[in-house]
Amino acid sequence: MRRLLLLLVGALVLAACSDDGSGPATQPTEPTASPPTTSPSETPSPTPTPPPLAWGPTQAEYDEAARIVSDLSVERQAGQVIVARYAGLEPPVDLIAELGLGGVILMGDNVESPEQVSRASAAIQEAGAGDYPVIVGIDQEGGSVARIREPATEFPAYMTLGASRDTAMATDAARASGEELRAMGLTMVFAPDADVTTGPDDPTIGSRSASSDPALVADIVSASLAGYAESGIVAVAKHFPGHGSVPADSHEELPVQSAGLDELRARDFVPFQAAVAAGAEAVMVAHIDVEAVDPGVPSSLSPAVIGLLRDELGFDGVVVTDAQDMAAISDGYGSGAAAVRSLAAGADIVLMPADPRAAHQAIVDAVASGELPAQRLAEAAIRGIALMLHQAAAGAPPDPGVVGSNGGLSYEESLAGVTVVAGACEGPLVGDTVQVVGGTDLDRARFTEAAQAAGLTVGSSGEVVRLLGGTDSGAGDVVVALDTPYALGASDARVRIALYGRTPGAFRALVDVLRGAAPAAGMLPVLVDGVEQQGCPG
């Protein structure tokens, strides 16, 4: 209802704006409730502080965002809805200032060290020079998707939390990660991953998902959102309508979702519905062809799919597209057409257009031609600015000394998720000397460091510990899956362990389980064919 009223009021206000769309558009605020009336004999009570909107900002922050946008030209509004990527270590301060970009995202090639990230973040904010923070976003899910690694704390893959079933740990880990990111100047994290993985045929999400159980994913995602909120960083739940149940990678092609709407509601939508109920501030929409809803159209460009998120799930917050330089979009649409279509469909932030200038110009031209209603652009800009005003209200970021201070928590997270699917649940699983094979050079180095620190000898004799980095199996006395656990089903090793991570803390947890110093309490969060023992319940 709030969204409907917003749009109705918007139409009335914008009718008074310039016909050519080139002037600033005054955008409505979301309606506030009328104050309660009192009888003459009653003493009026103090006016209560308006509660936050369902997705984070307060009414005052939303109203301030609307005021700011009303003073922006269409050109500046168009820049506000773009979050661009850039190459190298030097941030694109000139582009931010020129286009009035809403923000940038840091990728691996933009990161050298925590100190360098802090300097880049400060330069980005200075280039914005507005009354609200610029979005400085990053993919920092943990596991294989983490742009900043040591000396910052590395957290294991999200599936670790599904294995532990520990929602309190999910909150703690998200809070700690968010605090480290904020200490480096980041304002937005593209996490948590709310996808439900459907098994080894899921080529994209895998261990980035907490589980194949929708209810478990929902619980972990909701807990993570609470932790991120406590840290003061904006979290973006992703990838609606669910990327874990399609057999293709949208980085490489447009995946086709063949499941019916009822199946999607019972599986893929469940964590997103929980995220909305938990007050999610932003949701990322994937590039997926949902045949039952809008066949042939990527969901990030589809009014029907985004409409499900808005109307059926009741989400009023910021809708972010997945990266528009991915093949699912770039192979079929130019930067300009994709940006315009995503905004027209209901998205609020265009993430990583292949050509930011082309996307910006296309948005401006589309408003001038009427292809993109001026009120739709203004609405998107208001949502983004309101969210960043809300982020600024979190106060000063933590001291830089917090970066890298959560190694103990990362270890505890991994230890709670270690899953033994073959072998004893207690006591030493190896002798005093082991050999380590498989994995990468870094995997073996980290295992060796953890083993030696715990008093195990790593050499050319003793039991063989084989590290599995992917889906291929291999021989050994102990076989350890560092990512998804599916390969364990094809192994005949006497001890088989799912670790869900290759961080220093994960290897320390593995060593403690191997030498009997700590129990393995995790349970498989996904179905693994060929495995009878699901773990060692505590």
From TrEMBL:
It is an enzyme of class 3 (hydrolase). Residues 33-54 have a biased composition (Pro residues). Residues 19-57 are annotated as: Disordered. InterPro entries: GH, Glyco_hydro_3_AS, Glyco_hydro_3_N, Glyco_hydro_3_N_sf, NagZ_Beta-hexosaminidase. GO terms for biological process: carbohydrate metabolic process; peptidoglycan turnover. Residues 88-383 form the Glycoside hydrolase family 3 N-terminal domain. It catalyses: Hydrolysis of terminal non-reducing N-acetyl-D-hexosamine residues in N-acetyl-beta-D-hexosaminides. The keyword Plastid does not apply. One of its GO terms (molecular function) is beta-N-acetylhexosaminidase activity. Residues 1-18 form the signal peptide. It comes from the Bacteria. The keyword Hydrolase applies. Belongs to the glycosyl hydrolase 3 family. This is beta-N-acetylhexosaminidase. The lineage of its organism: Bacteria, Bacillati, Actinomycetota, Actinomycetes, Jiangellales.
